[in-house]
Design goal:
Blueprint: H1 20-26, H2 34-47, E1 70-74, E2 79-81, E3 90-94, H3 95-120, H4 135-142, E4 150-152, H5 158-163, H6 168-175, H7 207-220, E5 227-232, H8 239-250, E6 255-261, E7 264-265, E8 268-269, H9 270-273, E9 288-292, H10 296-311, E10 317-322, H11 341-351, H12 353-363, H13 369-392, E11 412-415, E12 422-425
Parallel strand pairs: 4-5, 5-6, 6-10, 9-10
Antiparallel strand pairs: 1-3, 2-9, 7-8, 11-12
Helix pairs in contact: 3-4, 3-12, 3-13, 4-10, 6-13, 7-8
Length: about 425
């Protein structure tokens, strides 16, 4: 697993249950328990039988009623710009939310690893930018806003596509250019869409003014809605972003501008690209927050704070999420020519978002190893089913190439690559 950087980018769960000694070495188990040990032995025997699905195996080592319903956590304080108070520095995680966050982040991780595999098999072609390592950003933002709110991002968009409601099958089929994809196979990796999700945009930074336009529509129509407009540190020095800041502040638009700072714009470190790497201060007159983007709870609380700011009529706010990508910039980038494998491994060992959440849940009696491994197994199965669909679903026929250019318009002709080739555009 992993890709060109030579580092395993999975988290939680492997090819089968680990040994008790391995779990104790990782801190997953606190002490011996005969019933638990027997349950794990049974699970391992069943795991090796091909007609038994791991997700269906129930280990009788613990009653789910024994788990805590919630736990309180201290989280890292955000750096503030033009704000007297910031997001909460402690928060509560319920067991239900923790399991949901773990499942979603694990699914995004496994989906990206499968995309890596399909790309290397030349089943996925063209541009492909993976977001493994940045799962806390996708999940933390989504759980802090409403489904009726709006989100637009750049081309590292697979995770946001999923959190906004696109299924694994639709995402994988779009990656392989099949009819069952969320854009019917015409968009590919960089152009996925869903209700209130506007992509996936291929032009660096161009989605930021579009996000301000969506926020303008929210205000114009008097809706209690906001727009989240995301961009990377590589786009943060563009003029169109600062022009957008100015308009958004003048018009008090309900827009959260989010810079996902993963330390490298393509292969250039932020220190070599920007005279000031305090991206949360770049809005000048716009309030800003710098957030630990590897902690899903930090992202959640900061986004709630930012959303309340926008809904209250105070105008836009800027967030910088300090995060990290395990893969290179794209699949054509091995990711280790401008950073070391040791750097990647250090981030994985100290700051991985999935591992961080997993340890919190285990250490605070919100779940146990067996339950999380059942989630891992179900995630692997769902991703494998999505990949199977993406490789067997038919490709769109050539005559549909120009379909859906406009919505609710009469059919019209579209010129092809020369004047003698015509396509019909059907809404």
């Amino acid at each position: 697993t992993g890709g060109g950087n030579g580092v395993d980018t999975g988290a939680g769960g492997g090819s089968g249950p680990s040994t008790r000694a391995e779990d104790r070495a990782r801190g997953d188990l606190a002490g011996p328990g005969l019933l638990e040990l027997e349950g794990r032995r049974l699970l391992w025997r069943l795991w090796r039988r091909p007609n038994i699905k791991p997700a269906k195996v129930l280990v009788g080592s613990r009653n789910y009623a024994d788990f805590a319903s919630e736990a309180s956590f201290d989280i890292k304080k955000c750096d503030l710009h033009r704000l007297e108070e910031g997001p909460a520095t402690s928060t509560i995680l319920t067991r239900e939310d923790g399991l949901k966050y773990y499942h979603t982040m694990q699914l995004i991780r496994r989906m990206e690893l499968k995309a890596d595999q399909l790309y290397k098999q030349k089943i996925i072609r063209g541009f492909c930018h993976l977001c493994d390592g940045q799962e806390a950003c996708c999940v933390g933002i989504e759980v802090a806003i409403n489904p009726t709110d709006h989100l637009i991002t750049a081309y590292r968009s697979h995770g946001y596509s999923y959190t906004r409601g696109v299924s694994v099958k639709q995402i994988m089929a779009e990656l392989t250019g099949r009819r069952g994809g969320c854009a019917k196979g015409r968009g590919g990796s960089m152009h996925m869409y869903a209700n209130n999700f506007y992509g996936g945009n291929g032009i660096v930074g161009a989605q930021v003014p579009l996000g301000a336009g969506i926020a303008l529509a929210c205000k114009y129509f008097g809706k209690d809605e906001i727009c989240v407009s995301l961009y990377g540190d590589g786009a943060a020095n563009q003029g169109q972003i600062f022009e957008t800041y100015n308009m958004a502040m003048l018009w008090k638009l309900p827009c959260i501008f989010i810079c996902e700072n993963n330390r490298y714009g393509m292969g250039t470190s932020v220190e070599r690209a920007a005279a000031s790497t305090d991206y949360y201060k770049r809005g000048d007159y716009i309030p800003g927050l710098r957030v630990d983007g590897m902690d899903v709870l930090c992202v959640r609380e900061a986004t709630k704070f930012a959303a309340d700011h926008c809904r209250s009529g105070k105008g836009p706010i800027l967030m910088e999420l300090q995060t990290y990508r395990y893969h290179g910039h794209s699949m054509s980038d091995p990711g280790v020519s401008y950073r070391t494998r040791e750097e990647i491994q250090e981030v994985r060992s100290k700051s991985d978002p999935i591992t961080m959440l997993k340890e919190r849940m285990l250490n605070n009696n919100l779940s146990n190893v067996e339950e999380l491994k059942e989630i891992d197994a179900s995630v692997r199965q769902e991703v494998e089913e999505g990949a199977q669909f993406a490789t067997t679903d038919p490709e769109p026929p050539l005559e549909e190439l120009a379909y859906n250019i406009f919505c609710n318009e009469e059919t019209f002709d579209v010129r092809g690559t020369n004047p003698w080739i015509k396509y019909k555009s059907v809404s």
